[in-house]
Amino acid sequence: MKIINEKFELNVQLSNPNMKIQNKYFNQTNANAVRNFHSKFSNYKPTPLVALDALAEKMNVSKILVKDESKRFGLNAFKVLGGAYAIAKLICKELKIDINAIDFGYLKSDEIKEKLGNVTFITATDGNHGRGIAWAAKELGQNAVIYMPKGSALNRVKAIEKLGAKVTVTNLNYDDSVRVALEESEKNGWFMVQDTAWEGYEEIPRWIMQGYMTMATEAVEQMEDMEIKKPTHVILQAGVGAMAGAVLGYLSNKYKKVPKTIIVEPTEAACIYKSAVAGDGKMHIVDGDLTTIMAGLACGEPNPLGWSILNEHASAFISCGDYISANGMRILANPIKNDERVISGESGAISIGLINLLSLNELADVREKLEINEDSVILLFSTEGDTDPENYMKVVWEGKYSKTN
Ligand SMILES: Cc1ncc(COP(=O)(O)O)c(C=O)c1O
Q: Among 134, 169, 264, 360, which one is least packed by beta carbons within 10 Å?
């Protein structure tokens, strides 16, 4: 069933999730192994799970829980969880080491450097993934080469260059920048560490997705500490759908009855939504400039593993306008009553913006279809902080709400 609301630039595709299929890559054992790896980082600390109780009351739901990934390893976004884990797995595979027996510190040692030699990791990124790869490469004393799509914010470029990586901003969109990075990796014999997959290139993206599970395992534990058994709803934003697939893959293993999960994307780059609407189980591509303020979600080609999980387990697929994420940024920046402030960037705030939109009387029918009501416990992931501080200020202070205004 499809609901289109032109006034609010909101498109909803409802789905009937298959609760039975489980994904072996995202089970508890793998999640524990990944968490064990991350928890050995010297600056590891679970990111906060912020309960916005006053906002929940205002929006007529029981709980709104926001996982604040701006606090992740000082890198302002969740992405490094995947990139660092994949690079570690890659090195362990090359050198035939068991990742469970070592820590990241050991991979930084002279012994490993000597065995591995001088290597280069290459990737394409809208910013956050590349920053994670550049950080991991620097920590390991290795090189990173990063390709970024046209229109990438200078602040995001500089943040990656600061970590010693060589950055090239292409005149292409994200998906075509990935193809350029792949060509370069093949030409130069560099390690391609990409956060999306395609036929024949699945292992590294799978490791990246597994890395994201740490965010989900932390959230589950934090909810248990709050005496919340499980969320009724989870809202996950998607670019290629790797993050959403990893989190939902884990939750579908964890809970017998999977929470109602809503996948949300910007209208101009809604490849997961488009695939769900097609209803043929296949991935469908969006091309062109993918114009949106949500740089991290500006991807037109789904990740196949991510898509297969979302297709099986998600309850709804939504595409919506940029103004919804801009509203979400402002709401999290201006908490009410005793709620905590969360600094959330363009790709981080879309879910809270969506909850706010759905609280409108005019959208009661959508709320009802999604079974959002006063008993709902809604889990969201603010996946980045102000990764482009200049644009963050324009949105939060000056009321910017699209790429062009
Ligand atoms: C901040 C942020 N949130 C969400 C996503 C979406 O992740 P995925 O591309 O795996 O769907 C990204 C991707 O770069 C991101 O940077």
A: 360
Q: How far apart are CA 289 and CA 26, in angstroms?
A: 33
Tell me which residue has tokens 């001088």.
118
pLDDT digits (tens, 9 = 90+) for 64-110: 999 999 999 999 999 999 999 999 999 999 999 999 999 999 999 99
Count of domains forming the chain = 2
CA distance 132 to 195: 11
What amino acid occupies position 308?
Answer: S
CATH at 344: 3.40.50.1100
CA distances from 178 to 28, 170, 197, 368 (A): 31, 10, 10, 40
Q: Is residue 403 part of a domain?
A: no
**Could you tell me if residue 358 is inside a domain?**
yes
Does 126 sit in the ligand 1 pocket, CB within 6 Å? yes
Q: Quick one: 197 and 210 in the same domain?
A: no
DSSP bridge pairs for 60: none
Q: How remote is the CA of residue 295 from the centroid of ligand 1, in Å? A: 9
pLDDT band at residue 21 using 50, 70 and 90 as cut-offs: low
Cα of 112 from ligand 1 centre, angstroms: 31
With b for 16 or more beta-carbon neighbours within 10 A and e for fewer, the 15-38 pattern comes to: bebeeeeebebbbeebbeebbebb
Q: Over range 117-143, report the average pLDDT.
A: 96
Instruction: Please state, in angstroms and rounded to a whole number, the distance separating the CA atoms of residues 25 and 18.
Output: 17
Average pLDDT, the chain: 96
398/401 Cα distance (integer angstroms): 9
Helix (H) or strand (E) holding 209: helix 203-225
CA of 239 to the centre of ligand 1 (A): 5
Nearest residue to 350 (alpha-carbon basis) of 325, 333, 329? 325
The conformation of residue 77, written as its DSSP 8-state character, comes to B
Alpha carbon distances (Å) from 261 to 139, 206, 244, 271, 357: 36, 21, 9, 17, 17
Active site residues: 79, 126
Task: Give yes or no for residue 384 CB within 6 A of ligand 1.
Answer: yes
- Beta-carbon neighbour count of residue 54 at 10 Å? 14
Answer whether 0.85 is exceeded by the pTM.
Answer: yes
Ordered alpha helix ranges (H), 78-201: 80-94, 104-107, 110-116, 128-139, 154-161, 174-188
Mean pLDDT of 238-255: 97
